[in-house]
Amino acid sequence: MDFGRLPDLRYVDFRLPPDHPDTAPLLARSRLAAPASPRLLVGCPIWTNKDWLGSYFPLGAKEPDYLRYYAQQFNSLELNTTHYRIPDAPTVRRWRAAVGPGFQFCPKVPRSISHERELYNTDALTLTFTRAMRELGDNLGPCFLQLPPHFGPELLPRLERFLLDWPTDLPLAVELRHPRWFADHGLADSVFATLEALGKTLVITDVAGRRDVLAQRLTTPLAFIRFNGHGLVPSDYERANEWATRLAEWYAQGLHAAYVFIHQKDVRHAPLWTQHFLARVRELTGIAVPPPRLIPQQVQGSLF
User: Fold this and answer.
1) How many domains does the chain contain in total?
2) Overall average pLDDT of the 270-287 stretch
3) Among 76, 21, 40, 27, which residue's Cα sits nearest to residue 255?
C-alpha cells in the first residue's frame, strides 16, 4: 500500500485519535447481538510471498501450494488479485479448497468498477464479481471497495446508488481516499451516517502521510483496519500496542469482529509484527489467534 507512505517519519504523530462520538452509540446498539466469542481476523494483501520460503513456507514449496501454507499462518487475506481481474468459478473454488474452516477472504472490488468506471454503469460487472465471490461460501468475509484518490464528494450520489444496489447479503467495506471527504466534518459525518444506515463498514486506514483517513468511526459492529508499517521501526510496535488497546476497548463495548490487514514493504516483516500484535491482543482481551510461526524445514542429510 503506497497510499500515504512517507520516506521520513520524524514528524508524524502516530498516536490514534480519540473515537468519533458516534462510535460508542453504534457499539452500544450492537452489543445485544454481539457473539459470545468476538472474532479477530488478521492477514496480508497477497499470499504468493516467495520470501517466506524456508521460514513460514516450506523450502521448495511450489507456487500452487502457497495459499494452503499461507492459510496455516494467517486466518484472513485481503484478496488483492480480484482488483485486477474477476476470477472464474473454478479458480475461486480452488482458493476455497486450499484453506480451512474459519478462514476469511476479503476480496477487493475490481478496479474496472471502482477506478475505471468510477461506479458508473457497473451493474453487469458487479453481478459477475459477486457471483464469483459467492463460490467462497463460508470463507467469504467482507468485500472491499477501495475508491480512487480522485473520487471526491461530488460523486456521492453515484456512491450512494452503488451501495443501494449492492447485494444486501454480502458485507461490504468502503475506503474513502480523497481529502475532501474528511476536510468538511459535516460532510464526513453525513457520509459516515449513510454508511451506517446502509450497513456498510468504513475502512480505517492507518498510514503515515494521511492521518485524516484515521477517522475512528465505526459504521457497523465490524472494524476493517489497514495498517501500513515501516520495516519494524519502534513506531510500528508502538502502533501495534495502541491498536491492541483500542480493539480491547471496542470489544468490551460490543464489537463483533475486527479485520486487520498488514502492509509492510518487506513481506518478511509482516509475520513478526503480527506475532507482537496478537500477543498484545491476547493479553488484553483473551482472544487467542495462533500467530505466524516458523515451520521446521526438512534438511537432506549427507551420506558422509
Assistant:
1) 1
2) 98
3) 27
